[in-house]
Design goal:
The chain has 232 residues and is mainly β. It has one helix and 20 strands.
C-alpha cells in the first residue's frame, strides 16, 4: 500500500459561531463551556514544555508558564490559538536562563483534541492518554519529543513536516500504527522490530491496520532518526 505523508488540511469543527476573542497575557485560563471537539494551535514553535490532558481539569485550557513569558490566547469557534510574543526584555531573560521556560498546557478531558504546532517542536512531553485525539500536526520538525496517546476510536493522522529526531510514541497495546517516512530513516524501533538505515521512502505497519480499523497513521516528511513506537 502506497503511503503519502501529505495531509489534507484538517477540518475544524466549530462549536460556537461567536467572533474571535483575544485574551491578554494575564489571562491564562479559558472556561470549559461544554465543547466536545477543539483544535489547540501553537504558533511560532514550542520548546521545554508539556501538554497534558488532566482527568481532573475544569478549564478548557490552562497555561502555566513558569518564569517565562505568558502567551496571548485567541479563541474562535473550534480553535484555541496560543502565541508567544517575545519582547527585548524576554530575550535578555532567555539569554541568562538558556530559554528554559517549562511551559505546561493543561487540556480538558471531555474534549477530542486536534493539536497543531507551527514553527517546530523541541523537548516536549505530550501526554494525551487521558483524553481523545482527532489529529496531530507538526510543521517545522521536532526533536526530543514524547507522545503518550490514548486508544484511538477512528483513524488518527499524526503528521510531521521538517523531519523528526529522537521522537517516541506510546499507545495502548491493542492500538495499531502505520508509519510512512519520506527523506530517509535512521533507526526505527517499532514494538519488537528494530530497523537501521533506509534511504528514500519507507512504509511500515503493525499488521492490525486493515480497513477502517481505529489506528494511528504517522507520516513524516523530511527524514527521521531515532524513532521509537511502542505499546504501553
Amino acid at each position: 500500500m502506497m503511503f503519502d505523508p501529505i495531509p489534507a488540511p484538517f477540518p475544524l469543527d466549530p462549536y460556537r459561531t461567536q467572533p474571535p476573542r483575544m485574551f491578554d497575557a494575564e489571562q491564562t485560563r479559558l472556561p470549559y463551556d461544554g465543547q466536545t471537539r477543539m483544535c489547540l494551535t501553537v504558533c511560532a514553535g514550542l520548546a521545554h514544555a508539556r501538554i497534558v490532558v488532566d482527568p481532573g481539569a475544569r478549564d478548557l485550557v490552562a497555561i502555566e508558564s513558569g518564569h517565562g513569558p505568558r502567551p496571548w490566547i485567541r479563541l474562535a469557534a473550534g480553535e484555541v490559538e496560543l502565541t508567544w510574543r517575545v519582547s527585548f526584555g524576554d530575550w535578555l531573560r532567555d539569554l541568562f536562563t538558556a530559554g528554559h521556560h517549562d511551559v505546561m498546557i493543561i487540556l480538558h478531558p471531555a474534549v477530542e483534541w486536534t493539536v497543531a504546532i507551527r514553527g517546530g517542536l523541541s523537548q516536549l512531553e505530550c501526554d494525551l492518554s487521558a483524553g481523545a485525539v482527532g489529529r496531530i500536526d507538526i510543521e517545522g520538525g521536532c526533536s526530543e519529543v514524547l507522545f503518550d496517546l490514548p486508544r484511538p476510536t477512528s483513524i488518527v493522522p499524526i503528521w510531521i513536516a521538517g523531519g523528526a529526531s529522537h521522537v517516541s510514541l506510546r499507545r495502548p497495546a491493542d492500538a495499531g500504527v502505520t508509519v510512512g517516512v519520506k527523506g530517509g530513516l535512521s533507526m526505527l524501533w517499532l514494538d519488537d522490530r528494530e530497523l537501521d538505515a533506509i534511504g528514500g521512502a519507507a512504509h511500515f505497519d503493525t499488521g492490525d491496520v486493515a480497513g477502517d480499523t481505529p489506528r494511528y497513521e504517522l507520516a513524516i516528511r523530511g527524514g527521521a532518526s531515532d524513532l521509537s513506537i511502542e505499546r504501553r
